Amino acid sequence: MENYSENSRSPLTTPKEQPHPLFFSLRENVAHIQEQLGFSSDLAVRWVMINETACAFLFIDGLVDKDTIHDYIMSSLMLDMPVKASSSDLLYDRIKTVSLPVGELLETDDFRPLFSSLLSGETILLLENENRALMANTRGWQDRGVQETTSEGVIRGPKESFNETLRTNTALLRRKIKNPKLRMDGKTIGRLSQTDIAVVYIEGLAEEQVVKEVHQRLDQIDVDSIFESGYIEEYIQDAQYSPFPTIYYSERPDAIAEGIAKGRIAIVIDGTPDVLLVPALFIHFFQSSEDYYQRADIGSLLRLLRLVCFTIALFTPSLYIAFITFHQEMIPPTLLVSLAAQRDGVPFPAFFEALIMELTFEILREAGVRLPKPVGSAVSIVGALVLGQSAVQAGLVSPAMVIVVAITAISSFVFPSYNIAIPIRMLRFVFMTLAATFGLYGIILGLIAMVLHLCSLQSFGVPYMSPLAPMIPKDQKDVLLRLPHWKLFTKSAALTKDYKGSKHGGTKEKQS
Amino acid sequence: MNIPTMRAVVSAMICLAMLTGCWNSRELDELGIAVATGIDKNDQGEYLITVQVINPSEVATEAPTTRPPVSTYTITGETLFEAFRKLSIKTPRKIYLSQMRLVVIGESLAEDGIMPALDFLYRDHEFRPSYYITVAKNASVENILSVLTPYEKIPANKVMNSIENAESHWGVTTGVHIDTLISKIRSPGEEAVLGGLLLNGEEDVGNRMSNVEQADAPTTLELDETAVFKEDRLAGWLTEKQSLGFNFITGEVSSTIVTHPCENGETSSVELLRSTSSISAEMDGDTPSISVLIEAEGNIGEMNCDISIGEPEGIDQINLALEEEIETIVQSAIVAAQSDFESDIFGFGQAVHRYEKNDWKTLESEWDEVFKDVRVQVDVKAEVRSRGNSSRQIDKKG
Description:
B: GMP Synthetase, Chain A, domain 3, four-stranded mixed sheet, about 30% strand, globular
């Protein structure tokens, strides 16, 4: 991990807060909180008398569940307070132990945790002559509920997806794995945003080294705000300058639970439905959770199909360029003649033609993501007509090139993980340039470089290409093929590193 | 990586991207795809080459025009290489030779010796050695390559497909590639053959579009007879029957129809489905003798003899007739090769070399003389496997 030194950081950075103990005076405490929050309009302060002691409830409007506050805090303290306490000290203890029927109640004598829980939707109870505060969990805000996944659809299998609330997300995981060993280590990252994070894994199943490594990397993050898992991903990923993702993410609880059950570690971040999963190997991006729900034969075939599509999406335009400008002798004669007929009258070299079409497609694709839904159909019409027909009729591109771009585009949407299509999108242009410069020779050079790079990558200590390179025979049952479930009983050796010849395996034996 | 290196790498990469028109890269629309080449010699002893180039937009089009699907260009040159390059003064595009299907050798070049011409065809890296080599039998190569063929738009493709089809279903023609040709010319105790290409009809009609606008094209290209070479010179032509005999001996008949007469004056045909041959040699004192064993299997395809093929005896009769017929065919080829052309196209010398290594050393130098009179024993074993849908001939009687 890189060390981010203080001076390289933006001036916006908030300094680390110093401890600040609470005052004895209730007025002073409330004034301090109001002042710190700049008399914010959503800060609600309710002054009450309990047992003739002045108290104040503070909460942030909109972050709290008002019913809980009314029914279980206010009414129980103000209406049902059973015993009269003689001193304020005693009153405080009474409230804490007897009279506050809420599930989570914490106390503090410092302003820092007070602020962070106040701003997370907890209700603060301050008493006169008391330098401690009670914090009751009354979190409850509007979220969009557990809805159907939009970006990772399946035919068969659960349809639910994570949402933006950490607790909902961890609950979804708990519901899938009802095991006491399921660990959810909490963390707060981000000086400004104070984002809650949970590291979820199964103790004893996840490799201890990796869990430790995850914690270590997360603890090193020093950043103002975290709004999405992408922030965390960039901070903790292994290869900063690789186009290939070394961290998997998904918004499907079943996909993440599947990973956790196989000994991987999930990182749930508040505020985003995308949950990270590490270690992520190359092959994981080609495996859909649906592979396990469908029958084994079709599951295996679909995996192979995805790998074929990977090749198609990455190499088709470059192979087309190479064949058509360097290796015409390799094209079957009938095809060559028809290609030559199509190329007649196209003003650009094949490379330039491919570049135009691929760029146009990328533009359409980006526009399709950004466009408001009602205009979406306009894009498809423009795309289909302008790209498919008019460009050909106008003699700008040859029909074969349209087919090449189309098959490339369709193939790049096959992967269950959107992540892996990104290096393909980028590298496609590199390969096209290589093909236009050196022909097949260039493509092979590029391929060798790419394979070397892939083999050099690691994800949290696990070789990225494993269990293919290094080859782990006993793991092959769930790599390219998905054997029937009753054959998949043992867990992945690549992830647990107990395969022969591994660095980790060796040290582990020595330790024991 | 420091900044100067980064700069160098980045600028190199930009340059590379810009240099896409360089070196070996050729755009498809800059290539004239040649499918057939004719090679001959003119009276001055110069090479005369004719190249048949595809006109892609006419071949692969949904709206055909009146322009021909191929164009031919003819030019002369001291050497073949020179002639091919010189073609650029006539053609709008660079001639691209890797998709060549057919090379037609003119008769006068064939009589003079083809080896010098083969050197270029074999050496140049652009030629993919999968084209067939044929000899123009009765017309100049220029005329043959100018014939437009019906049904198959590209004449070279038509010839190539005919060679392949006839080879697998009729067994008379031989498709010869350049490596086989060169190795046969070079190896002692074996001579080369090439297929013949015949122009059937008027030369002046064949090169017009009107030729292919009729259901029955007046001018056509046909495969006919087989050119026999002695070393690299044309020695003569085998007739169709002799060609079949030649293919029987070399074991290259995969399927053919053998017709034999029978007692009632009618004929019957057997479709051969498999045929193998083995040539062996042994010394008979000082003179070698060759034995050829041909084994053939087939089905009765047409039965007009008065033979009851429902009985095993009937089948035996057919087998016998078949064997006799094949032997006659084979003998005719042997006689032609031995007495007419004195050319060992069957590779009998190679057989002597294989079986009688020591004697071959003395025989090798005088093999041409020995071959003329060498005794050849032909054995044919034919077997009919199936008799079709009826166990007897279909006749007028009930």
